[in-house]
Specification:
CATH architecture: 3-Layer(aba) Sandwich
Order of helices and strands: HHEHHEHHEHEH
Number of helices: 8
CATH class: Alpha Beta
Number of domains: 1
Length: 145
């Protein structure tokens, strides 16, 4: 499960871009809540406003997002868990949706959002949490399990 902090790196050169792109290239099953589309679009819009990307690049990235091997799940059944994550861990409801999906699906949650990672790393949710640069470690531990 990936959040927008990882997905946007598939289209923009940033810190941890290579690790994020490696996740797509790995052939792993990837999923995300439907919110990811809006969040990636919003990041692209902000970059366009600052003159960092062309409008055409933004449209292309949004189209490419739909072509990637990313299964999009509805947020509809995640609301209560997302609220509890936001309330209990002081994170946004948006962040809670990503965490809720990882919990519901019983899978790893890969993020490049340092604040979110730090907020959850010492919690009971850390069993789902993987820092984007630690993907090799996560893959190795899953293979050995």
């Amino acid at each position: 499960m990936v959040d927008a902090s990882v997905a946007v790196k598939w289209f923009l050169p940033e810190d941890h871009t290579e690790a994020a792109r490696g996740l797509v290239e790995s052939g792993s099953d990837l999923l995300s809540p439907d919110l990811v589309r809006a969040e990636v679009g919003n990041v692209m819009w902000k970059r366009w406003l600052r003159g960092e990307v062309l409008a055409e690049s933004t449209i292309e990235a949004l189209r490419d997002l739909e072509l990637l091997p990313l299964r999009i799940e509805s947020s509809e059944l995640l609301m209560e868990t997302a609220w509890n994550v936001a309330r209990l861990y002081g994170r946004s409801f948006y962040d809670g949706l990503y965490v809720a999906l990882a919990v519901q699906m019983g899978c790893a949650f890969v993020t490049a959002d340092r604040k979110l990672y730090n907020a959850l790393n010492d919690s009971d949710l850390n069993e789902h949490l993987v820092w984007v640069e630690d993907l090799d470690l996560a893959t190795e531990s899953q293979e050995n399990a």
